[in-house]
Each structure stands twice: as structure tokens, then as C-alpha cells.
Amino acid sequence: MNIIELNNLTKNYNGVPAVKQLNLVVPEGQVFAFLGSNGAGKTTTMKMMTGQMKPTEGKVLFYGRDIWSDREARKLAGYVPDVPLLHEGLTGREMLRFVGALYGKTTDLQQQVDKILNQLELEDKADQLIKEYSLGMKRKISIGCSLIHQPKILLLDEVTNGLDPKATREVKDYILSFAKRDGGTVFLTTHVLSIVEELADQIIILDKGVIKMSGSLDELREMRGRNESRLEDIFLSAVE
Ligand SMILES: Nc1ncnc2c1ncn2[C@@H]1O[C@H](COP(=O)(O)OP(=O)(O)OP(=O)(O)O)[C@@H](O)[C@H]1O
Hints:
GO terms for molecular function: ATP binding; ATP hydrolysis activity. By secondary structure, this protein is of the alpha/beta class.
């Protein structure tokens, strides 16, 4: 089943196209990487997928449901923005409870908070104020906030930005367990190509609002005609 579908997704700013008739599908359990140079249209696409910006044309479907005509469908996804949006005066645990309450979760909220703190290995710091957290911990609690309503889809915008190797490893491990162990579906943007090589089942290279290449890493290598190609070489040849 296709979990995410973008159909002819288009965004114009003041008549100038930033994303042009984007079509793609993401099957269940896949990690899907959305790559592009600065200004390619990744953030614009992510905003249309998270309900922050209305498309000029086209549709975003989660599990076949149009997130712009069926707003409840947005709850099928959890979103982690590139800059963590957190209340620094709360503890990590309070932040998770707060987001849970916003989603109207009451019955099993405490259990869900404990589960997330455990999964993200944040139990030790759960009762410390967020303003005392490192960036890695803030990113992890931001991921936790996106999971509180138990989404089937994770939308991750530059989620490893500024993280040290250990925190990066932990976030990568979490992404893999969400997709490969729990059967979730991940759509991520990043400029770190080694992360894509390691995690992604499917890769899209976007340039000036249009898809230049798409496929698995092996398929992209075949398209380029050289099996030994690194993603960096493939990317640079696609966007030049
Ligand atoms: N609010 C806006 N008003 C007008 N133009 C915009 C707006 N937001 C983005 N753009 C333009 O749309 C195009 C795509 O921008 P977008 O931010 O989506 O790219 P991006 O791939 O996310 O880039 P980056 O990797 O630098 O974050 C760019 O030409 C940008 O200048």
C-alpha cells in the first residue's frame, strides 16, 4: 500500500513556481530521502505535507486520504521541524505531556510518555528543564513530541543537523527501528548524503522544483551507468 502520495503537487510564490507538479509514492516501511540543493523546494514541499502551507495545485495523501480536505488525516503523521519548537521552561516529561494533551490524549498518556522516554533513552533527563538540554537532547525530545499520538508516518526535516556522531547514531537507529521494526514510514530531508546512503530505501533528487532522479541508491547508480558511483557524484551530476 502507498502510505504517502504526492499528486501533481505544485506551489507558486507570487506566480513564481517553487515546486512543480511533483508526483511520488512512498510504500509502507520505507525510509524515503528527499534531496536537493538550497532553494530546490524541499521545505516548501514539507510545509505542504504538514498542513502549514496550502498547495497552489495538487494533493498530499496519507493512506489515500487528502490532508487538505480531510484534516484528521494529518494526525497520521508526526513532524519533526529542522529547528526544535520546544517550551524551554518545561521539563522533557512535561513537554511530552503538554503535546499529548494538545492531541486530546488522556487515558494512556502517562504510559505513552514513559515509552517514548525509554525508546529515546531520555529517562535520566526527563525531569530536567529543556533549557538545560544539549541540542542532541532537544532534537530527541522534539522527535518524542512527534510520536506522542502514535503516528504511522514520520516527516523529518534535517533531523540530524548539528548533532555529534553519537547523537546522530542514536537518531539514525531510531529511524531504522521505526521503519524496519515497527513498520512505520519515514520521509526525510537532509543535506548529509552519508545518512541517505545508510538509511534510505528510496531517494529523490529535486532541482528547481522538479524531480531530476528517483530510485534506490543502486537504481540511481545504474542510471548513471557506473556502479561504483558515490551518492555525492550522482547528486552533483543531477543538479548541475
Ligand atoms: N515565503 C516565500 N515567498 C517567496 N518565495 C519563497 C518563499 N519560501 C521559499 N521561496 C522560494 O522558493 C524556492 C524553494 O525554496 P525552499 O525553501 O522550499 O527550498 P529548500 O530546498 O528547502 O532550500 P534549503 O535547502 O536552502 O532549505 C526558493 O527559490 C525560495 O527562494
